[in-house]
Amino acid sequence: MADRVQKGASKETPTGLLSGLTEKLSELEDAVGQQADRFTAVLEIGAAISSARDVDGLLRLVMDRLTALLGAEASSLFMLDASKQELWSRVLRGSALKEIRLPLGSGIAGHVVTSGQTLILGDAYADIRFNPDIDRISGFRTRSIVAAPLRHVSGRILGVLEVLDRRVNAFNADDRSLVDAVASQIAAVLDNVLLLDELRSQNEKLLRSGEKLSMAVRELDLLYEVERAVTSAEGQGELLDRILAKAIEVIGAQAGSVLLLAGDPDALYFRAARGEKAEKLISMSLKSGQGIVGHVAQTGEAIRVEKADDSPHHDKTIARKLGLAVEAVLCVPIEGEDRVLGALELLNKPGGFDAADERLATLLAGQSGRAILVRNRREAGEREARLSSIGQMLSGVVHDLRTPMTVISGYAQMMAVESDAAERRRAADVIEKQFEQVQAMIGETLAFARGERDVLLRKVFVGKFVAEVEDYLKKDLESGGVEVKVAADYTGSARFDENKLKRVIYNIARNAAQAMPNGGRFTFGVSREGPDLVLRFADNGPGIPPEIADRLFESFVTARKKGGTGLGLAIVKKIVEEHGGTVGFKSRPGKGTTFEVRFPAGTPAE
Cβ distance 506 to 499 under 8 Å? Predict the structure, then answer.
């Protein structure tokens, strides 16, 4: 018993107490050293993160250091893709998988993101939140897990940091603290990276928008230049040459041509050409489908090749004939509303043509097609208008000639049966005067059509002149039921072109008669007012329709009168103005119309 007491007391001896304390100090030193190593590691990781340039390389390094520091076997870093509501693996260490994508909320990583809380599991398979599918794919048997959210200082969750081990209960609270500390530092740098990525993305969008804006401005400038060419070019050839010159300048080609389908649908004709041997191309044509340009015009599909020989449609015949070297080719169709009109071909741009060049060429070709159609319609309209004008003018001439020809026919018949030589002589004089009138009418009509101003002013006795006009008007108008009254308040002399002034009077009188198909009254008077000779005409017809009143003296304006041409009053205005005078009218619906012609008499009043 004494021995037992001695042995028990030995533990209470100073030597025993000192030995136990030494063991405890050693254990404490190990723990402190371990914590110091971890603290140092965290500082090193923080320093590395703050100075990193290659972020993904840095993350791999950090994950390796963290895995080794915890004595773990694998680790992963998942990022949150909010737009797709997914987690994707940015870094996988210790796994054979290249990428993992998980629905948000799936597995331990999904739970940590949605809850925002760090999670430590001693046996993952014992937790219902664990998703074993990834283990089955990778072959790694996960037991212990430390998963910490990548939380920015703002509270926003960027992703999850996971550390994995095959052992059960491999991690403790200190390990959890270490993972939290590293996750916070990774979150800080990732937030900056994401911000930088966003800024870079926005910058790229701005650059693309700037490029698009620059391209749009360039295209608008180009369209403006083409529109100027369209409006200022006198003919189709000049128009196409200007468009081709602009295409070569803007795109940077060394040569080019515009070919159109014209007349023969199986042939393409050079309508504009620039570059070496261009003058010889204008005299040439291609068969439908011949060469690259023929194929484009036939199919309506653009062709862009770095070398002409790269296209199966290239025809070397023309190049060989002209001694041209053809390298890069860009050819686009010139389209109309429902068919291909031809093609625009550009050649030999240094470095070749790109998609932007094709876009510009297509834009120019489209503008060319519209310009060609507009010009063709305009020219067709002008031709139709010219033919219509000629037809209307001829109709007017024929109508004007009807009365003198009727007079000539009547007097010729009288001469055939008249035995008195004096009567035959008088009839011959009338016929001769009518022929003079016919010749004057034809000359005045042609002069009007040519825009000429030619009057023969000479002294005319107004009394004799009015008597001749009265005789003519009565023969012409009274057969149609129109009563004619003539009053000459002035019978002295005046200077005017006698034949042309008769034409003025006859045209106004004939217009009045046409406005009164069922008969009426027409009066004509002459007076002298100061230096002017004044002619007044009045009828009791229906008046001038309001819709044409402001255009009454323009060519081809009529009130839909049967047999009217719209030239009569236009010629009246021209003749009066050639005499230095004016013509005007007053009219009321249903009350008739009054015309007044006034021009300098040219002689003292008598």
Answer: no
